[in-house]
Amino acid sequence: MIYAIILLPLVMAVACIALPSDRLRPWLLPVGGLGQVVLVGWVIAGMGSGPPVTGLGGWLLLDPLGKLVLGFLTLFFFLCSLYAPGYLALRLDRPNRMFCANLFAVQAMMSLVTISYHLGLMWVAMEATTLASAPLLYFNHNARSLEATWKYLLIGSVGIALALLGSFFLAYSMLKAGLESTLVFDQLVRDAPDLSAPWLRAAFVLLFIGYGTKMGLAPMHTWKPDAYGEAPGIVGTLLAGGITSCAFLAVLRIYQICRAGADADFAREIMVFMGLFSMAVAAVFMARQRDFKRMLAYSSVEHMGILVLGVGLGGLAVYGALLHLINNGLTKGVLFLSAGNIHRAYGSKVTDDVHGAIRRVPLSGSLFLAGFFAITGSPPFGPFVSEFTIASAAAASGQYLACGLFLTLLAVVFVGMGATILPLVQGSPPEGSPATSFRDSLSTAGPIVLMLALVLVLGIYIPPPLESLLREAAASLEGTR
Amino acid sequence: MVQYLDPLLIMGLVLNFVALGVSRIRGVINAVAAQGVLLGAMTIMIHPAIGVRGVLLVGSTVVLKGFVIPRLLVHAMREANIQHEVKPVVDYMSSLVLGAVGTGLALVFSYSLPLAEEHRHLLLVPASLATVWAGFLMLTTRKKAIMQVLGYLVLENGIFLFGLLLLEAMPFLVEVGILLDLFTGVFVMGIIVHHISREFASTSTEHLSELRE
User: Fold this and answer.
1) Residues of A with CB below 8 A from B173's CB?
2) Which residues of B128-161 are buried (b: 16+ CB within 10 A; e: fewer)?
3) What letter does residue B22 receive in the DSSP assignment?
4) Fewest C-beta in 10 Å: which of A88, A175, A278, A362?
5) What residues contact residue B30 under an 8 Å CB cut-off, 6+ apart?
């Protein structure tokens, strides 16, 4: 069964290539997305509390953490795919064969990351997400998107090459300890206390930098504003909510090994520092951002920082970070897709040209505004709950400095982001700005409404199955050694 | 056969300097290709009894790194109609000096590394670190997109060298996956090099400077 999770999107990718019609092809995306939701739902529900599903002799295994991320990514991809037909119908000027096929390829590789229990295999899948998503960035085929794609591909590949070196160091730490060297995850966790400490530490640093580059943590984030700024909204969504979450999962895997060994504190200090640093960098660059899609990229840098910060703080903050993975992903979906609509309605993404979005595209403008309040942690939206959990866990465990900095940076970001977004949605559209033919419609706004509804629900009520999955996953990160 | 390893490694290191000091792109491609072939030969030196799968792996490494990828890059170079790196950020003499300093530091540094007993006298670890460094230098100081791709390949070769210590840890399937990723990566980069040259009538990444803060 576990193979089907990867095969289904790959089959859909082939179907996209085979289908000749640019008009019909985008409809394969929601069909495949829904199929995957059913399949993954069935696998996860069927597992219950029984033994985990495995494959390839233990190289593939669906553990609680994997279940959480895979479940989220599957639902998230489906919600994104609902937006695709409406968007691509507006973009019949560009062929979409490879675009659709690559979207499915990205989904297949993201799913493979979540079920990889072999760090080499996980690396292969992670690099494959970079390669499959690069052509998506270049969808518009202009000079700017070309530049963004080049940076994304090169910085991503170099980062991920460092992660490969880190993986080798990890295997070497077993060899040095006189054990048979392997990269199978549960063996590494089991033998972690015996691993050679210097090599393990070096491995953590390299892997953290490598996968951190894919996450877009500062200072390895330089590809991000360009990539998110130039990519179509749906691609930005998939990068900011999907691929970065996969990279975060990879970081968590390494952390689990350090945690099982004696090096948890070393890893946690690095994560707290890098988390706060990313938030600070994002806060600085967000304040005077004139391009609202680039601003969203810095918001992504900030929230990746919050994720690693939460894990670094430990205790209940780990639970908060995992919940934030979901909240951030969904809210980023709201923001990127509605920003894409506003971009289309004005033909510009520079804040000087865009005012009064609520008047011109009432639904997208309001959704963008709501997304802003949600992502900055205002109640009653989901991110408020997860960010509050992280902050209170930090205070409860006596980490007052980190807690204070966290709250301060959140406030700075709120002000900086608000200064850009409020004039953008309020007021009246500027005189002489050519009104494009784009208007809100069910196909381009409906999926965003769905995402926002989920963000709202998560702020008020966490369904018991999700709650228990979150607890299990957090326990696997915080559990007894 | 381990006694033949060190001469091969030294040849590999020399090729780093060729890649760092030559401006003719064709020359750099040849150096990187030769490095790929050397890597295959080294695998057999270190693990003489690797069996059929191992031979297949070595074979595919040599074919891919030594012939297919260089072919691809030569093709991209012809398409883009470029022969030389124009003006690297750091000139050739300084790159060579930096490369030499890095190689020296790698040698000194790896003596202090807590290596396993059987690896203590091998040149493999310092050679790996030095090659990673050379790759980084090329990536950061060259302006031509194709030279940056070559830098990425040198970096990857350096990592591969370290991986030779742990052939047991990396199962066949994963090795193949890594090679496949490398190949696809260079392939996609090749396509983008082509697009850059068409868009700007040059493959210098200097033109890629519109997106700045």
Assistant:
1) 56, 121
2) bbbbbbbbbbbbebbbbbbbbbbbbbbbbbbbbb
3) -
4) A362
5) B70
pLDDT in tens, B2-59: 678 888 899 999 999 999 988 888 999 999 999 999 988 888 888 777 778 778 888 8
Residue A22 lies in a domain: no
Average pLDDT over residues B107-113: 85
| Burial status of residue A215 (CB atoms within 10 A of its CB: 0-12, 13-18, 19 or more) | buried
Q: Can you point out the beta strands (E) in B30-137? A: none
Rounded-to-integer distance, Cα A3 and Cα A20, Å: 28
Q: Tell the residue number behind the tokens 């050519």, with chain if given.
A: A434
Full DSSP string of A298-320: HHHHHHHHHHHHHHHH-THHHHH
Residues of chain B with C-beta less than 8 angstroms from the C-beta of A109: none
Please tell me which of the candidates A130, A181, A196 has its beta carbon nearest to residue B169: A181
Query: How many angstroms separate the CA atoms of A180 and A182, rounded?
Result: 6
Residue with tokens 């030095």: B130
Count of the separate structural domains present in chain A: 1
Q: Is A471 among the domain residues?
A: yes
Beta bridge partners of B144: B204
The count of domains in chain B is: 1
Interface contact B155-A161, CB threshold 8 A = yes
Residue of A nearest to B115 (CA): A176
Residue A411 lies in a domain: yes
C-alpha to C-alpha distance for A306 and A326, rounded to whole angstroms? 13
In whole angstroms, give the CA distance from residue A208 to residue A169: 13
Residues of chain A with pLDDT under 70: 48-50, 433, 435, 479-481
* Residues of chain A contacting residue B188, judged by C-beta atoms under 8 Å apart: 131, 134-135, 153
Separation of alpha carbons A37 and B44, rounded Å: 47
Given the structure tokens 């799913």, which residue do they identify? A111
Q: Is residue B213, in this structure, part of any structural domain at all?
A: no
Counted across chains A and B, CB pairs separated by less than 8 A come out at 122
What ipTM was estimated for this complex?
Answer: 0.90
Q: Measured between alpha carbons, how far is B99 from B131 in angstroms, rounded to an integer?
A: 9
Residue in A175, A191, A196, A214 to test binding to B, most B beta-carbons within 10 Å:
A175
Please judge whether A168 and B159 are an interchain contact, meaning their C-beta atoms are less than 8 angstroms apart.
yes
Chain A contact set for B207 (CB, 8 A)? 143, 147
Q: What is the DSSP letter of A438?
A: -
* Contact call for residues A318 and A311 (beta carbons, < 8 A): yes
Task: Supply the Cα-derived Rg of chain B in whole angstroms.
Answer: 18
Nearest to A171 among B166, B189, B209 (CB): B166
- Is there a domain that residue A154 lies in? no
In a domain, B32, yes or no: yes
Residue B200 has pLDDT above 90, yes or no: no
pLDDT digits (tens, 9 = 90+) for B62-88: 998 899 999 988 888 887 777 777 777
